[in-house]
Design brief:
By secondary structure, the protein is α/β, with parallel strands linked by helices. It has eleven helices and seven strands. The longest helix has 18 residues. The chain binds adenosine-5'-triphosphate (ATP) and magnesium ion. Adenosine-5'-triphosphate binds next to helix 1 and helix 9. The site of magnesium ion has 5 residues, from helix 1.
């Protein structure tokens, strides 16, 4: 399978990091080997896994992106509390990368060779990107096979989606012709609001089966888990948030392979 998926939306706070962590953990629970890459200077993914201040001997993703030496991705990877799930962390230095990359050669293609070297060891590599369409996100889109787009069910979400799909189109045209849309994920859904239902219906009518059947509900456990440094499935596996991400993982796996190999009791 060996898929590299960028979790992206330039709109802030739509659930990118929550999706990256919890989808990755759910895939790992289904016996897939998964690497998470924190490409956001806020480093919420790194802190959400309880790894703030931790780095492997090769440093963080910042060191790899700005170095002229060829980095072995294995030298950047850390274990997490979930078996089969590893992470390349970020820290505040990554804020500078957005500026430093401008002067470097191949500034939009510096992540791609690094992840190509990691690809064979993982079933899935998920990249968490910042809320912008700057050089860091561009590096993720150039390195990835596909983009998973989390979006919340608000009115302005649709405008943001148009801007993002236009950017994906430009990346396909100039930098990464293979890039596709992995899927659109409706997050923070509140079935009680008519606005949310209207936006969800509109997204489904535009993007049809690109939209996952699973929607992620608003669930406090998803917001609490990062404070404990673990994905929601380890924090409260029975919560509606954890169950929704397990269901999303099943859908992602179904899109990529026939379902019989799934461990049914778990997913
Ligand atoms: N389904 C949910 N239910 C309740 N809270 C959620 C849910 N998803 C995310 N959150 C919370 O909402 C906030 C924003 O989520 P998250 O950090 O995943 O978004 P993001 O898109 O990565 O943000 P940014 O653009 O800043 O990187 C976080 O505090 C998170 O814990
Ligand atoms: Mg984030």
């Amino acid at each position: 399978m060996n898929k590299i998926i960028s979790v992206s939306n330039q709109k802030g706070g739509v659930g990118k990091t929550t999706t990256a962590i919890n989808l990755a953990a759910s895939l790992a629970m289904a016996d897939r080997s998964v690497l998470l890459v924190d490409l956001d200077p806020q480093s919420n993914l790194t802190s959400g896994l309880g790894l703030t201040g931790h780095a492997a001997e090769g440093g963080t993703i910042y060191d790899a992106l700005t170095s002229d030496q060829e980095t072995d991705p294995a030298d950047l990877e850390l274990d997490t509390e979930v078996t089969g799930l590893r992470v390349i962390p970020a820290d505040r230095h990554l804020t500078g990368a957005e500026v430093e990359l401008v002067t470097l050669s191949d500034r939009e293609s510096r992540l791609r060779p690094l992840l190509s070297r990691a690809r064979a060891r993982y079933d899935f590599i998920l990249i968490d990107t910042p809320p912008s369409l700057g050089l860091l996100t561009l590096n993720a889109l150039v390195a990835a096979d596909s983009v998973l787009i989390p979006m919340n069910c608000e009115y302005f979400a649709l405008e943001g989606l148009a801007e993002l799909t236009a950017t994906i189109g430009r990346v396909q045209a100039y930098l990464n012709p293979q890039l596709s849309i992995e899927g659109i994920l409706l997050t923070m859904a509140d079935s009680r609001t008519l606005l949310g239902q209207g936006v969800a219906a509109e997204v489904r009518s535009h993007f049809a089966d690109k939209v996952y059947a699973t929607t992620i509900p608003r669930n406090i456990r998803l917001a609490e888990a990062p404070g404990h440094g673990v994905p929601a499935i380890l924090y409260d596996v029975r919560s509606s948030g954890a169950e929704a991400y397990l269901s999303l993982a099943r859908e992602v796996l179904e899109r990529h392979s026939p379902p019989p190999t799934l461990p049914e009791p778990l997913l």
